[in-house]
Specification:
By secondary structure, the chain is α/β, with parallel strands linked by helices. The protein is 47% helix and 15% strand. The N terminus is likely disordered.
Length: 341
C-alpha cells in the first residue's frame, strides 16, 4: 500500500470513528443529566470550561455589542459593572468594529480588572502570516501579553478547517503563540451550519489535535433548524470540549417572533450543557436582565423544555429567526475576504 493510500485510508477510518462517537454521545446526551456542574458566587453561577478545569461565569459578555455605545465610557461602565457583579468571561474579536471592541475592552480591563477575567478573542486569518499578525494586534489592543482563549473566527465554509490545518496555515501561528505564552487555550467559532463544525472537529482529529472550546449558536430556534445543539453539542460533551453558546436571543430576531421572553431564551441556553452563554450587552438594563436570568435559573424539566420548543417550532421552521445561518448578512469575512489572508 502506498503512503498516500494508507494516509487516505487512515483519514477515512478517523472520520468513521468520529461520526460513531457523535452518534453514541448524542444518545448519551439525550438520556443523561447535564454534563456541567455549577457553583454560585453572588449573583452568578460558575461552570467548568471543558477539560481545561477553568471556572467561568455561566453568562459571558459579548464583545461585538460592547463596541456599540456611542460613549466609550459607557462601554467601560458596562464591562466593569459586569466584572464587579460576577461575570468573568469576556468575549471579543479582532474584527469587531474594526478593532474598536478590543480597544475599548483593553482600556476597561486596566486598574486590576484584567486579572479578574477569563479573556477570549478571535482571529480571522487562515494563513500563518495573517494569523500571527492578528494575534499580535489583538494583544496590543487588549493591552495584555496573553489571552486565555484564542479562537479561529467564522469557521463557516467546508474548506476553512483545511486552510487552518494546512502547512503554513493559521494553526501553526496559533501553536507558536501558545508556546510563546501569548495564548493559553485554542478554540474555533462559527454560525453557519453544524456540518462545518463537525467537519472541523474531524479534520482536527485527523491532525491529532483537540480543541479546548467551540463556540456556536444555541437557542430556542436552533433546536428546529440546522441544529448545532443536536449535531455538534453531543460531540463536545463527549470529548469534554468547552461549550460556548452564542446568539441566545438570535441577535434580537427571536424576540420579534413574539413566542418567548428574553429570560426564557437565556434559561433555555443555560439549561443546555453550556460552559458559557455569551450574550450581547450594550445597555445597563441588558446587563441587569442577564444577571436576573442567571439568578433565577433552575434546571428545566423535560416537559417544560418540550412546551417551550413547541411554542417556537413554527417560527423556527425556515430559519427566518436565525439569518446568520441562512444569509450572508452576518458573514464579516465574506465581505472582507482579505482578512482571511
Amino acid at each position: 500500500m502506498s503512503a498516500f493510500v494508507e494516509q487516505k485510508t487512515n483519514a477515512e477510518l478517523n472520520r468513521r470513528q468520529f461520526l460513531k462517537t457523535a452518534i453514541v454521545s448524542g444518545v448519551a446526551l439525550g438520556a443523561g443529566s447535564p454534563a456541567w456542574a455549577a457553583e454560585t458566587k453572588g449573583e452568578m453561577p460558575y461552570r467548568t470550561l471543558g477539560r481545561t478545569g477553568e471556572k467561568v461565569s455561566a453568562i459571558g459578555l459579548g464583545g461585538f455589542h460592547i463596541g456599540s455605545p456611542k460613549d466609550e465610557q459607557e462601554s467601560t461602565r458596562i464591562i466593569r459593572s459586569a466584572i464587579d457583579r460576577g461575570i468573568n468571561f469576556m468575549d471579543n474579536c479582532w474584527d469587531y468594529h474594526d478593532g474598536g471592541s478590543e480597544v475599548r475592552m483593553g482600556k476597561a480591563l486596566r486598574d486590576g480588572y484584567r486579572e479578574k477575567v477569563f479573556l477570549m478573542t478571535k482571529i480571522d486569518g487562515r494563513t500563518k502570516d495573517s494569523a500571527a499578525k492578528q494575534i499580535d494586534e489583538s494583544l496590543r489592543r487588549l493591552q495584555t501579553d496573553r489571552v486565555d482563549l484564542m479562537q479561529f473566527h467564522e469557521v463557516i465554509r467546508m474548506e476553512d478547517p483545511d486552510r487552518i490545518f494546512a502547512p503554513a496555515g493559521a494553526m501553526e501561528a496559533m501553536q507558536e503563540a501558545k508556546k510563546a505564552g501569548k495564548v493559553r487555550y485554542i478554540g474555533f467559532t462559527g454560525h453557519k451550519d453544524p456540518l462545518v463544525h463537525v467537519r472541523t472537529l474531524e479534520v482536527a482529529a485527523e491532525h491529532q489535535f483537540r480543541f479546548d472550546a467551540v463556540q456556536m449558536p444555541l437557542n430556542v430556534m436552533d433546536a428546529h433548524f440546522r441544529s448545532f445543539g443536536q449535531q455538534v453539542l453531543p460531540v463536545l460533551v463527549k470529548e469534554r470540549i468547552g461549550v460556548l453558546g452564542m446568539k441566545p436571543l438570535g441577535s434580537g430576531a427571536i424576540l420579534k417572533s413574539k413566542t418567548v421572553t428574553p429570560t426564557e431564551c437565556l434559561h433555555y441556553a443555560l439549561n443546555l450543557p453550556t460552559s458559557v452563554v455569551i450574550t450581547g450587552i450594550d445597555r445597563m438594563e441588558l446587563l441587569d436582565q442577564a444577571f436576573e436570568a442567571a439568578r433565577t435559573f433552575k434546571l428545566m424539566s423535560k416537559p417544560t423544555v418540550s412546551a417551550l420548543l413547541a411554542r417556537t417550532a413554527e417560527a423556527a421552521a425556515t430559519g427566518q429567526c436565525e439569518q446568520f445561518k441562512t444569509t450572508a448578512h452576518f458573514d464579516a469575512t465574506a465581505s472582507h475576504p482579505q482578512w482571511l489572508g
